[in-house]
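User: For a reading group we're discussing how well predicted structures match intuition. Take N-6 DNA methylase. Before you show the prediction, I'll give you the sequence so everyone sees exactly what went in.
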Amino acid sequence: MSRRQRAERAAMGDPYKTELIKSMREFSHSHDPNTVFSDFIEMCALALSNRFDHPQFDAREKRYMDIVGKYKPEETQRFAAMFAALQMCYRTRVDTIGDPGCPGIPGDGLGDVLGEIFMALELGNDRAGQFFTPYSVSYLMAMMTVGDAASVREKGFVTLQEPACGSAGMVVATAQAMHQAGLNYPETLHATCVDIDQRCVHMAYVQLSLLGIPAIVVHGNALSLDVWGVWYTPAHVMLGWGRKLRRRREAEARSIVAGYAEQPGSTDEPGATGPDLQGQGLTVPELAPSGDGQHHAVEHEEGDVVDAVDADRTEMQFDAQTSIAALFEELTGQATAVKAENTIFDRIEQMSLF
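Assistant: Thanks. Here is the predicted 3D structure of N-6 DNA methylase, as structure tokens, for the group to look at:
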């Protein structure tokens, strides 16, 4: 049996996948299969994004109309039917796995639907080493990593970072493993996924969106740190993961600052900096008295305090007893403080949280 036959047989176990593959092939008489698949996935991603990510609506709506303009009316209707089939495919799978903690999950579970369709249509670039890990392998790895999820329960939630996510099959497998362990993954898992291939970005975004997985999907280069586009899944927006991640980041920063404050040579006097903090390039903002008797941070040209863009953020008040809080505020406002921005995830964290 050829590789194509094996991939196609794996993809044909689901009637919705079968329908999608058949519809894709109906385009082959007049369009390039690679282009059709890419356009379909991008249109799905744009349609989902424009329901929730309003700041990027205009540009993405224009892109959507540009793609639609390449096809005949009957072909755009076929795309709509394909999107409906894709949604039903995921809905059926989510319903099938049952409530968190169910002892057995039938079939392929959530599965890497788009990755399997991609491989069945032979759209991968072998010369570039592009292939999608079989979902059974991803799920085995996820089960070994998650285990009984005791550490997740202790922390409240975990974050997953994928520097070359592909179709996000590993993230989906992790969500299923957490579900199997009795956790509600929309509330306990957040993923940041990066890929240099725009088509993979769209595939990952569509899968994670339709499965209700909170995530930030980035079109970028994890090595050069270039970022060309950021996509927020509906679960990320609707479940308030921006606030949730920011609060953990603030708590971690407080812990770091408290650790420095306890070191010999540190002081709580306004404007003071211990030697180790200076080694990290940190400075404490000056505290100036105001008419209300409180002390407030004085901003400088370098290292200004960065305000959060989220409207629900509470502004921190400074007084003579809160120089540690002042240091924390500067710490969270500087991309190079304590930990240099040396990965693309550090950069996206700054973009998404602030």
